[in-house]
Amino acid sequence: VSRSMVGELLDRGVAKVVGTDLDRRTVEAAVDHFGGDRVDFQQTEAADLSILATACDVLAPNAVGGMLNPRTIPGIQAPLVCGAANNQLEDPARDAALLADRGILYVPDFLANRMGIVNCANEQYGVFDGDPAIEAHLERDTEYGVYRRTLEVIERAARRGRTPAEEAERLAAELMLEEHPIWGHRGLQIIKSLVAEEWHRG
To answer: In what order do the strands lie in the sheet with 105-106?
Structure first.
């Protein structure tokens, strides 16, 4: 996950990416792959959480859950926390409030990283490259896409005096009551994709 994120950030012109991993080989592979002075990757021990106190624009926890808690939140020097790890908050209500009290905007993990479960849920309808049912979630103008939903949660939270974590849970509960739309012509989309990829040639 982090490797994909680093590549995307560098492609978009980010000034620098700082990261750590427990595995030395993973760090060495990342350094070899990305190289340059815009990346700073270090191998670290499991008990060393100092990376969370790095001064940065965005803190992106992408591995172990429960890393944001009363022991680490006071040291965070980023105005925004948005990562792909599951269950980043050790205690969702308590730690979301701690982040908010420090003026740190937290994008709930299940909002930021939801494409994994969306992809799994959609597998029952067939899978193919460039699937518009998946790609739409990544477009900025799609109402239910990651970008617009994130803005919606942040705006709702500010308006209602709640944390984004609490508001995201409320929105999820609301959306669970909506019926899933019927996808027309799905079979035709899959067939066209298979033909375009020359699937029959094996």
So the answer is: 58-59, 80-81, 105-106
Banded model confidence at residue 1, pLDDT cuts 50, 70, 90: confident
| Rounded-to-integer distance, Cα 3 and Cα 16, Å | 14
- pLDDT tens per residue across span 113-144: 988 878 787 788 888 888 888 898 889 999 99
Q: Residue 46, CB half-sphere, CA atoms under 13 Å: how many?
A: 2
pTM: 0.85
Q: Please, which residues bridge with residue 106 across strands?
A: 81
d(C-alpha 198, C-alpha 115), whole Å: 27
- Any idea what the Cα angle at residue 18 is, between residues 113 and 16, rounded to 5°? 100
Nearest to 68 by CA among 122, 23, 109, 116: 109
CA distance 1 to 25: 16
Q: Are strands 80-81 and 105-106 parallel, antiparallel or unpaired?
A: parallel
CA 185 to chain centre: 30
